[in-house]
């Protein structure tokens, strides 16, 4: 109630305007849920019996910042700016409320359609029963603050249970994406799905196939970006939904026997994700979707590369390369952006690079090559590599941590001496052509790559020494090339 009173000035004003126009207005859905949890932000959702044209007219009487992009579906939005509290301490600060008002809905879904046939309703109860979960099917009438909870949402909120207003089967049949949303709320709210919800998800998992890849992607991303995604991801795997949207994840549950022992790759991957989240403070973007996807998927190449070796050992040679290809294919199918796909697959391909230097003694050239290969993903690679240590052997974990501390220190030392962030040869293409007396062509690229490798191995040479080395390389190449 304290949260409701906090927003009362703007909410009650809207309620009074709708009432004066002969309509009813209700704060609804996630806004009520979050208010009751003491977590309400500045995005407010309302529902009303008013039709879209009437909603727009009323909102335009409050603010010029009105948008109608969802008007055909009954939703009109606006922004309302208000002074941030009273008194001189406010110092002119402004609070911006982002408001969406939607006409009561009574949508009808065709069984083989990805989209509902939008129909406007006339009753609040009819609108609430069409909502995804009971904790999102509560409302508060404005301006009188009458609480409306026909489907037991408050009791489920108190018991921390995810359930549906009607039957789960009807709810998930209406919109199959709600099954993934149940997984997301399992993590976001840390609630437990009701047994009937889990049963319906398991029985209807194949229906997720009619949902567009973009909607699946967005819901998966929201789940991965929660503070504690393990529970929701586990629900996707348990119910079989992951088999349809991210099959590489349940595939990590490799069978093990008493003769061939290896880590539980599935549980390991979830732990790496959790540890990557704990390390996100090192990154400029938080939460970071790319880093989290890379952590979750970094070992998806293992099922395809598993080989049983002598003495009960198991190998996964080249699982980094295979995993990068699998991730690129899956994330592309889910319509992630080209930049996100490239970054995640690159991190997966590089995630073992640190372990190629097992003794922990990094030469300058090895450090330069590591930084060059990581490029703009270096900070994320730091996070992924550190998170990938899940051993219970404290001594081994401490050795790995110290080794990576040493690597980062070496990177900082070299970065202070030379331009590690953008490794380039000491000569550019124009200088190469002038020194060798050649025009644009393949040879310029070969010379550039030679100088880049020389720069990595020996550090900055300066233009004169680089030109001398270039001439020697060109002469040796010219002698070795048959005429």
Automatic annotation (TrEMBL):
Instruction: Give start-end ranges for the coiled-coil region(s).
Output: 397-424
PROSITE patterns, sorted: HD
- Occurrences of domain HD (ranges): 265-384
**A Pfam family reported for this protein in Swiss-Prot or TrEMBL:** PolyA_pol
InterPro entries with a match to the protein in the record: Bact_CCA-adding_enz_type3_sf, HD/PDEase_dom, HD_domain, HDIG_dom, NT_sf, PolA_pol_head_dom, PolyA_RNA-bd, tRNA_adenylyltransferase
Superkingdom of source? Bacteria
State the UniProt keywords alphabetically.
Coiled coil, Magnesium, Metal-binding, Nucleotide-binding, Nucleotidyltransferase, Transferase, tRNA processing
Q: Does the keyword Ion transport apply?
A: no
User: Which cofactor is essential here?
Assistant: Mg(2+)
Keyword Hydrolase appears in the UniProt entry: no
- Signal peptide positions are none
Could you tell me which NCBIfam families the record lists for this protein? HDIG (TIGR00277), tRNA_CCA_actino (TIGR02692)
- Put simply, this protein is called CCA tRNA nucleotidyltransferase
Q: Which organism is it from?
A: Microlunatus aurantiacus
């Amino acid at each position: 109630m304290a949260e409701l009173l906090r927003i009362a000035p703007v909410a009650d004003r809207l309620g009074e305007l709708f009432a004066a126009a002969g309509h009813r207005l209700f704060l609804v859905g996630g806004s009520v849920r979050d208010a009751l949890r003491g977590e309400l932000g500045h995005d407010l959702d309302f529902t009303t019996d008013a039709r879209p044209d009437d909603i727009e007219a009323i909102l335009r009487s409050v603010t010029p910042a009105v948008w109608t992009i969802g008007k055909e579906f009954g939703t009109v939005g606006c922004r309302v700016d208000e002074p941030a509290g009273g008194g001189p301490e406010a110092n002119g600060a402004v609070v911006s409320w982002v408001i969406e008002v939607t006409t009561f809905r009574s949508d009808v879904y065709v069984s083989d359609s990805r989209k509902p046939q939008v129909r406007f309703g006339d009753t609040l109860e009819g609108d609430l029963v069409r909502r995804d979960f009971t904790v999102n099917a509560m409302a508060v009438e404005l301006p009188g603050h009458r609480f409306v909870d026909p489907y037991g949402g408050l009791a489920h909120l108190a018991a921390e249970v995810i359930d549906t207003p009607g039957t789960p089967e009807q709810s998930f049949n209406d919109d199959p994406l709600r099954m993934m949303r149940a997984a997301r709320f399992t993590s976001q709210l840390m609630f437990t799905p009701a047994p009937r919800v889990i049963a319906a998800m398991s029985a209807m998992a194949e229906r997720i196939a009619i949902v567009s890849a973009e909607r699946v992607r967005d819901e998966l991303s929201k789940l991965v970006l929660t503070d504690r995604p393990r529970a929701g991801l586990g629900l996707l795997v348990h119910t079989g939904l992951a088999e349809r949207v991210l099959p590489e994840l349940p595939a990590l549950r490799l069978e093990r026997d008493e003769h061939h022992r290896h880590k539980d790759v599935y549980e390991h991957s979830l732990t790496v994700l959790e540890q990557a989240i704990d390390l996100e403070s090192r990154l400029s973007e938080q939460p970071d979707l790319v880093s989290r996807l890379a952590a979750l998927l970094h070992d998806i190449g293992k099922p395809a590369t598993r080989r049983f070796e002598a003495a009960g050992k198991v190998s996964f040679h080249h699982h980094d390369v295979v995993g990068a290809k699998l991730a690129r294919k899956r994330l592309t199918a889910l319509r992630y952006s080209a930049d996100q796909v490239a970054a995640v697959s690159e991190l997966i391909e590089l995630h073992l690079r640190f372990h190629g230097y097992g003794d922990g003694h990094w030469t300058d050239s090895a450090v330069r090559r590591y930084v060059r290969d990581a490029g703009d993903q270096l900070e994320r690679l730091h996070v992924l590599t550190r998170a990938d240590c899940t051993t219970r052997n404290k001594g081994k974990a401490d050795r790995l941590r110290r080794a990576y501390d040493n690597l980062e220190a070496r990177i900082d030392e070299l970065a202070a001496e030379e331009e590690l962030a953008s490794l380039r040869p000491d000569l550019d293409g124009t200088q190469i052509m002038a020194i060798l007396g050649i025009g644009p062509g393949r040879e310029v690229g070969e010379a550039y790559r030679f100088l880049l490798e020389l720069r990595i191995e020996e550090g900055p040479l300066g233009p004169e020494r680089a030109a001398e080395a270039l001439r020697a390389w060109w002469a040796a190449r010219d002698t070795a090339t048959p005429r």
